[in-house]
Design brief:
Blueprint (H helix, E strand, L loop, with lengths): L23 E3 L2 E3 L3 E6 L6 E7 L2 H18 L4 H17 L1 H12 L3 H20 L5 E4 L3 E9 L3 E4 L5 H14 L4 E4 L5 H11 L8 E3 L4 H9 L5 E5 L2 H12 L4 E5 L4 E5 L5 H13 L9 E7 L3 H12 L3 E2 L7 E3 L5 H16 L3 E4 L14 E4 L6 H4 L6 E7 L2 H8 L7 E5 L3 H8 L6 E4 L18 E2 L4 H6 L2 E9 L1
Parallel strand pairs: 7-8, 7-10, 8-9, 10-11, 12-13, 12-19, 13-18, 14-15, 17-18, 19-20
Antiparallel strand pairs: 1-2, 3-4, 5-6, 6-22, 11-21, 16-17
The structure holds nicotinamide-adenine-dinucleotide.
The site of nicotinamide-adenine-dinucleotide has 27 residues, from helix 7 and helix 8.
C-alpha cells in the first residue's frame, strides 16, 4: 500500500503558532542553526524577528531528509497529495491574521494588502491542488502510446522579498502535488514569514517533504550548487536568475526562472480618462511599485496625454504614504535599505537630467524607507528610468501617435513579463495585445493573476512558467511508453 499524506486538519480557533520565535525546519523538526540574525522593519528601521543562519551542514542535512522523503512522497497517490495541499491551504486561511500582521511588520506593506497576499496565497495553493495531470493516450492499429508525468526529485524554491508568502505558496503547491519534496529559502530581507509558513505545513506533510532554511547570502548558492536537487524554482531579479541558471547547469538541474519586468501599459485615445488614469496609477504604485508586474512604463496617445497626466496627478495625490498599520495607507515603505538606495538613484537621475516631475519627486526624511509616488512626464526614451526596473514608486509617462509606434516602443526592451492595452474598443485592444512580447497581457486591467493559467516571462523576464498545467509539468519528467500490439 502506498504511504499516506498527513492530513490531520487544523482548527479554526485561536492561532496555534507562536509569532515571536522562528526556526528552520529540517526533517519535520524545528532546527536552530548555530548562529542567528534579524531582519529590519522597514517602517521603523528597528530590528524585526530573529532568525537562524543556516550553515552548509544544515543544507546537507535538509538534502538527506528531502531525498529520503522523495521515495515515499512520490509514491503517495496524486489525489492524496492534493488533499494534503488543500488542508495546508485551509490552515493558512485560518492563520491569516497572524501571517498578515507579520508581513506588515517585516515586509512593510499596508495591512489590507498583506491580508490580500494571504488570500491569494491560499487560492494559489488550492489552485495547484485543483488541477490533475492525467496520462495522455494515443492509439493506432499497431501500438498504444502513453505519456505520463513523473516527479523530478527534490526541489528548491528561492523566494524574493516583495511577496514572500504568495510566491512561496506558488512553489510549495506545484511542487508538492506533483510529488517533489521542496526546500523553501525565503529572502534574507523577509525570512520570518517563510519560516512560519513551513512550520505550519508540518502538520500536513511527512518529515522532509516541506522544509525551510533561512540564511545569509551564501545559502542560495549552496542550495543551487548542491548535487541533490533536481529542480530550482527561482523568483527574483534577472541578474541573479542568470547566476542561478549558470550554476544549475553544472548538474543539469531543471530551472524555472521568474525574473524582472518593465511592463508597458498602452492607453489608447478612446478611454474614459479619469477612470483609467486612476487605475493606471494604482497598478504602478501598488506594493510601492515593488511588483514584478507593476506598470513600469505608461504610454499614452499624444491626443490625450496632457489631460491623462493631470488626471493621474490628481489621483496620485490622494494616495497616502505611511506605516502599514496606519488607517488608509496605500504605500508602505520600500522593503529594505539596498532597494531604497537603488530607487533614490532614479530620483538623482531625474534631478541631474532635469526631468519634468508631474507629481512627487521629493521624499520624506526621517525614519523608514519612504518614497513618494512619482510620475515623470516624458523623460528621454533612452533614460535609465525608461529602460531599467526601479522596483519602486517612480514611473515614466511617455507618448505615442500610432498603434504601431506604441507596440514598437512597448517591445523595445529585454524584458517581457507583462503588458496591458487600455481601450473602450475590445477588438482593437485585443489585436494590439497579441503583438506585445510578454508572458501575460491584459486588456483594461493589469497585475491580475489566476492559478489556473501559466505565469512566466518572455525574453529576459524568465524561463518556463509557474501555475496552470505548464507549472505542474515544470516539476515533472515526461515519460513516453510505447506499447506494441
Ligand atoms: P534577488 O534576485 O536579489 O533575490 C531573490 C532571491 O534569490 C533571494 O531569496 C536571494 O537571497 C536569492 N539569491 C541571491 N543571490 C543568489 C544566488 N547567487 N543563488 C541563489 N539564490 C540567490 O531579487 P529580490 O531583490 O529579492 O526581488 C526583486 C526582483 O524580483 C525584481 O527584479 C522583481 O521584478 C523580481 N520578481 C519577479 C517575479 C516574477 O514572478 N517574475 C516576482 C517577484 C519579483
Amino acid at each position: 500500500m502506498a504511504p499516506s499524506a498527513t492530513s490531520n486538519g487544523h482548527s479554526n480557533g485561536t492561532s496555534k503558532l507562536s509569532w515571536d520565535s522562528f526556526h528552520n525546519t529540517i526533517d519535520g523538526k524545528p532546527d536552530n542553526a548555530k548562529s542567528s540574525r534579524h531582519g529590519i522593519n522597514p517602517a521603523t528601521e528597528e530590528n524585526s524577528s530573529t532568525v537562524p543562519v543556516a550553515s552548509q551542514e544544515d543544507v546537507d542535512r535538509a538534502m538527506v531528509a528531502a531525498k529520503k522523503a522523495f521515495k515515499t512522497w512520490s509514491a503517495v497517490p496524486y489525489a492524496e497529495r492534493q488533499k494534503a495541499v488543500r488542508a495546508f491551504a485551509d490552515a493558512l486561511e485560518a492563520e491569516k491574521e497572524g501571517f498578515a500582521k507579520l508581513l506588515t511588520k517585516e515586509q512593510g506593506k499596508p495591512i489590507m494588502f498583506a491580508q490580500m497576499e494571504i488570500d491569494a496565497a491560499v487560492s494559489w495553493l488550492r489552485g495547484a491542488a485543483s488541477h490533475d495531470l492525467p496520462e495522455e493516450r494515443f492509439e493506432d492499429d499497431e501500438k498504444i502510446l502513453l505519456v505520463r508525468y513523473t516527479p523530478l526529485g527534490v526541489a528548491v524554491g528561492i523566494v524574493p522579498w516583495n511577496f514572500p508568502i504568495l510566491l512561496a505558496c506558488g512553489k510549495i503547491g506545484m511542487s508538492l502535488v506533483t510529488g517533489n519534496p521542496i526546500i523553501i529559502k525565503p529572502s534574507p530581507f523577509t525570512p520570518a514569514g517563510g519560516l512560519k509558513l513551513v512550520e505550519l505545513g508540518q502538520q500536513f506533510f511527512p518529515p522532509g517533504v516541506l522544509q525551510g532554511l533561512s540564511g545569509d547570502d551564501n545559502l542560495g548558492i549552496w542550495l543551487v550548487e548542491h548535487e541533490t536537487p533536481a529542480k530550482i524554482s527561482f523568483t527574483g531579479s534577472t541578474a541573479t536568475g542568470k547566476k542561478v541558471m549558470a550554476s544549475a547547469s553544472k548538474t543539469l538541474k531543471r530551472v524555472t526562472l521568474e525574473l524582472g519586468g518593465k511592463d508597458p501599459a498602452i492607453i489608447l485615445d478612446d478611454v474614459n480618462i479619469e477612470e483609467v488614469a486612476a487605475k493606471i496609477a494604482t497598478y504602478a504604485f501598488l506594493n510601492s511599485g515593488q511588483i514584478c508586474i507593476a506598470i513600469k512604463r505608461i504610454y499614452v496617445h499624444e491626443k490625450i496625454i496632457d489631460e491623462f497626466r493631470d488626471a493621474m496627478v490628481r489621483y496620485t495625490k490622494t494616495l497616502k504614504l505611511g506605516e502599514g498599520n496606519e488607517e488608509g495607507v496605500f504605500l508602505g515603505p520600500i522593503q529594505n535599505k539596498m532597494q531604497y538606495d537603488r530607487v533614490q538613484g532614479f530620483f538623482d537621475d531625474a534631478k541631474k537630467e532635469k526631468m519634468n516631475i508631474a507629481v512627487g519627486g521629493v521624499n520624506p526624511s526621517g525614519k523608514g524607507y519612504y518614497i513618494t509616488p512619482t510620475i515623470v512626464d516624458r523623460p528621454a526614451e533612452d533614460s535609465r528610468l525608461v529602460l531599467e526596473e526601479p522596483f519602486g514608486p517612480i514611473v515614466p509617462l511617455l507618448s505615442f501617435s500610432t498603434d504601431d509606434e506604441a507596440i514598437e516602443k512597448a517591445n523595445n526592451t529585454h524584458y517581457g513579463l507583462g503588458g496591458s492595452i487600455w481601450s473602450s474598443n475590445l477588438e482593437r485592444a485585443n489585436k494590439l495585445a497579441m503583438k506585445i512580447e510578454a508572458g501575460t497581457v491584459w486588456v483594461n486591467t493589469h497585475t491580475d493573476l489566476d492559478p489556473r493559467v501559466p505565469f512566466g516571462g518572455h525574453k529576459h523576464s524568465g524561463m518556463g512558467a509557474e501555475n496552470g498545467t505548464a507549472g505542474l509539468k515544470s516539476y515533472c519528467n515526461s515519460q513516453t511508453l510505447f506499447l506494441k500490439k
